[in-house]
Amino acid sequence: MTAETSQTLDRGLRVLKLLADTDHGLTVTELSNKLGVNRTVVYRLLATLEQHALVRRDLGGRARVGLGVLRLGRQVHPLVREAALPALRSLAEDIGATAHLTLVDGTEALAVAVVEPTWTDYHVAYRAGFRHPLDRGAAGRAILAARQSPSADPGYTLTHGELEAGASGAAAPLIGVTGVEGSVGVVMLADSVPERVGPRVVDAAREVAEALR
């Protein structure tokens, strides 16, 4: 800790990060051990976070992330979208296909930014806010591939006709961005994706990842 930082705030944020990394919650004792502070300090931290709905405790006393975090999370999408737009514009113009940034939202893939090419006679209409299951479509499948190989670069994923008849997709996951799970991809009206598209999508995903770091 430096003179310019708050020890209490730092501990509170560490509590939230610890709770976010577990599905079953943590007890006061477990948090005390992980933080290296006594139980009284943990009780005070949890009480404060509960007042802001950032933490909730179940009947068994285990602390979990509260619903207040969702209200904060909603403000993340505009920031992520803004950071991704330059790379998406370049991708859409280069490939001549609709480019998109997709993030995980629960069990679904959510398109948060979409850029259409300006020079093509026709392209797939794909709108921000479009949702689909993670196991359908290139965007979701690319995210799942990254989950299965977190220490390796999964490359890109290709699909055809899974979300829209006659449409093909290519997507690559965002790698190395803390707190953001998503992919960058394109969707086009074609029976198959041209060979150069996959590597170009990977490059765009890297650009977006760098912008978000």
Record the SSE blueprint.
Layout: H1 7-20, H2 28-35, H3 39-51, E1 55-57, E2 63-65, H4 68-73, H5 76-95, E3 98-105, E4 108-115, E5 131-133, H6 138-148, E6 157-160, E7 167-173, E8 182-189, H7 197-212
Helix pairs in contact: 2-3, 5-7
List the main descriptive attributes of the protein structure presented here:
two-stranded antiparallel ribbon, about 20% strand, about 210 residues, alpha+beta
Account of the 3D structure:
The chain has 213 residues and is an alpha+beta fold. The protein has two domains: 7-65, Orthogonal Bundle (Arc Repressor Mutant, subunit A), CATH 1.10.10; 73-212, GAF domain (Beta-Lactamase, 2-Layer Sandwich). It has seven helices and eight strands, in the order αααββααβββαβββα. It has helices at residues 7-20, 28-35, 39-51, 68-73, 76-95, 138-148, 197-212; strands spanning 55-57, 63-65, 98-105, 108-115, 131-133, 157-160, 167-173, 182-189. It has a six-stranded antiparallel beta sheet. A two-stranded antiparallel sheet has the order 1-2. A hairpin with a 2-residue loop joins strand 3 and strand 4. Helix 2 (28-35) crosses helix 3 and helix 5 runs antiparallel to helix 7 (197-212). It is elongated. It starts with 6 loop residues before the first helix and ends with a helix. The relative contact order is 0.11. The model has no long low-confidence stretch (mean pLDDT 91).
